[in-house]
Amino acid sequence: MVLKIFFPQCCNRADSGLLIGRWITGQDSAIVLAVIHYPFIPGQVKQYIQQMQAQSGVELSVLGSWSLPKDGQDEMENFLKDLSTIFPQERWLQISRQMGKTGFTCEVLCRSQRGAAAPQKVSEKKDGEKHEEEKVIFVHYDQMKVMLSQLHPVENGVPDPKTDPPSELRQVFQTVASSRPLFFLDRYDDGPLKTTHWQSEGREASIIVELLKQASVPLCLLLRWLLALWAWLCNARVFSLFPLRVVGSKMSTCVQLSYRTEHMRTLSSAAPAAGHDQFMRKANILVSFLVDTALGWLLIWWLYRDDHITMLAHTLMPAADHVAKELQELLQWLMGAPAGLKMNRALDQVLGRFFLYHIHLWISYIHLMSPFVEGILWYGGLSASLGLTFALSLFSDMVALLTFHIYCFYVYGARLYCLKIYGLSSLWRLFRGKKWNVLRQRVDSCSYDLDQLFIGTLLFTILLFLLPTTALYYLVFTLLRLGVVLFQGVLHLSVDFINSFPLFAVSLRVCRSYRLAEGVKFRVLCEEPGTALHLLMEINPLPCGSVVQTYRTPTYSCYPKDSWAALVKKLFVGELIYPWRRKTSKTD
Questions:
Q1: Around 137, how many Cα atoms within 13 Å sit in the side-chain half-sphere?
Q2: What is the tens place of the pLDDT at every residue in 565-575?
Q3: Omega before 39 cis (within 30°)?
Q4: Residue 67 and residue 76: Cα distance in Å, rounded?
Q5: If we measure between CA atoms, which residue out of 354, 367, 359 comes closest to residue 327?
Q6: What ranges in 109-241 are assigned the alpha helix state H?
Q7: Where are the transmembrane segments (predicted)?
Q8: What is the pTM of this model?
Q9: Model confidence over 30-54: pLDDT tens digits?
């Protein structure tokens, strides 16, 4: 039988006294949390343990005695042994350490039916055989690291306490973390009891942290009032009208604004974090907001430092004009014999002139808006004061407006191509004597007369010979549209990365890796003859990839999550691809 005693490293050189801790239910293990020094009054010790139980919710008890004899304390070990009658326990641990030695000696005393303490080292059987001495293993742990760390499950999901009780190691971490009130008593307190634990030399505190805690209360109240005012403005009837509602749902800037508003509501909540996950979520949101704002002000400093706004305005409009002229040349090339292909001349001329007219309208629109571009960029650059994500979202909306003619060309070509594809597929079913049943959503057999077959053959021939011309225009404008979508996708991914990346968790993993624990490892600390086996428990940090996956902030999906096969199918049949469509549910 092996008895495991989890012993804090800070108590290795503590003065003689009583061991305060807890027996792990269902396990043959004990957790030592603190040592109460001699001299003490037993009644005060019992009262102190009851107070700590009420504050922490942990079933604390006196596990036994700790003896580190010094000069003039020869009878201390016998005195501590007699205390087992005052603090009745099923087991009484009598741990002692000699000066100059690393290992401990442990004697386990059990209470007999009469109430006297008898050592459990050797017991006689009726047939004269003897039991082996109960083996004791000391597991030394860093109390501060274990208290501040969060043990993550190796497999997916946290074990259910009803069906899957927590393991021994998880109970050790939970016990130490829940015993925070026990560590508030230090050497500077004037109480009758003196203890040794990781904060016995003085509680760790920061004046800056305490001042921030005091200042956060009025700041959260002010933020909640501003958010309530903003929510009242957003719920006005003017913004619920059809045009404004549709535009607000399509623009990336409005979506980012609603996303940040939800973040601010989470941060301004007066209720404290309910658990570790909620605390990490709030911390990640706060750090992400601060970094986003800092990057935004850095962008403002660059834009307004050397008149870069004017330079961008003088570069943007000629670039848009150049793109429109390049499209004109592309259409004129398509209206001829592109790559030596023989197109349907009548349809080619109609489509080319149709798109050329739209480009002429777009060039007129660019020339009309050119005097106002610098002012739009100047005031639009101020949106970076809210964060870099707002500037990127506004830039994405501007790209969408400047390339709106490409989107229109893509829609025209896709609709025409899709109409011919579905027409050819329907007429192909006519040749095979089948039709599409709309009510049952399936293909059924059908008999056609001679006139229907004749008209179907004519239409099929016309659509088939016009398909290459339409497909060429559709291919060219789809490639242009995919280029714009790819550029906007990079901007949206950048915004999503800033919003969702758990920077606080990653910083915690780099600076204090023990705070996020994946598990523990043991190594032999001491194995002296005549003493128990001593192991040192070290914390294995959670890998950085698991940190990002676990604490990534849920965000709204920027694009429909279609597979590559579904995307290729849509492109082949001419279905529209909507890059602005956003899901209302959050995804991790």
A1: 15
A2: 888 888 888 88
A3: yes
A4: 7
A5: 359
A6: 143-148, 168-178, 207-234
A7: 285-304, 350-369, 376-403, 452-476, 482-506
A8: 0.76
A9: 999 999 888 888 888 888 888 888 8
